[in-house]
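Quick illustration, no need to memorize.
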Amino acid sequence: MLAGIAIALFVVIAGWMVWRRQFAAKPPLRLYGNVDIREVQLAFRQPGRVAAMKFEEGDVVEAGAPMALLDAASYRDALAAAEAAVAIARAERDKMRRGLRPQEIAQAREALNQAQAAALDSRRNFERQSSLLATGAVSQRTVDAARAANEQAAAAVKSAQAALSQATEGARAEDIEAAEGRLAAAEAARAQAATALADATLRAPSDGTVSARVREPGSMVTSQSPVYTLSLDAPIYVRAYVGEPDLGRIAPGIQVQVRTDGSSKVYHGQVGFISPRAEFTPKTVETADLRTDLVYRLRIVVRDADRALRQGMPVTIDVADSASGGQ
């Protein structure tokens, strides 16, 4: 009897301990991390000589603001040449589309009339010389010469007819397509020249603060050579780590509070990313205790950040709602 009561009591106590371990309220989850502000290395896409640097280190810039300028004389000249090439190509295309002018067509028609008149005269002369050959009044050589002149005149008529037909029909479709292609190539070259001229002005990609001024006016730079380092104002990220035992208490989208050591201000954000793999690879042979030392990297997006949050600053993160509490 007593043994049965003892066993029942043991089962109740063990069940209560299991329930407490699984469902009892856990203390709020507190993490530690650092501000991880993004930086951009700003560079020209075109080579050249730096003409102006408009900002100093620590200056605040807005998105789209011109930050540096290259000497753009050569790029302006290239654009002017490209625009002239486009004008020439367009004029040639339009000329082929319209065909010859009425005056040129009339000229070709008059040339045909002249060739036909000359051919008629040559044929009559040949016929006359052929009739005189039987009487001996002309030689065979004279008749042969008249025959050759008649054939040449007939060929000239065919050539004039072809010229008039070509003038009337206009350019072939293939020639017009070729002219269209030359115009398209010229327009593409003009667009490239315009892009190169625009690239002579370096603009801020977003709001931020100049953290480094690398070049000075007069410097020769190649494409992709950094001239500024810009710290972006938004979004501000916090990099933190969560231990493997607490990994189940946090999930993307959970709201957090962020505090710094030197201020009482509370910032608000949410978990945006949890690394799918451990930050530190464990040893090949590990104990159960060593397995719990694994940590996973988090990215927290701060919504109401200000300039007091500086890169690398240590922060404390309090998780408002853990994953287990929301279930």
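Confidence is low (pLDDT under 50) at residues 281-288, 323-327.
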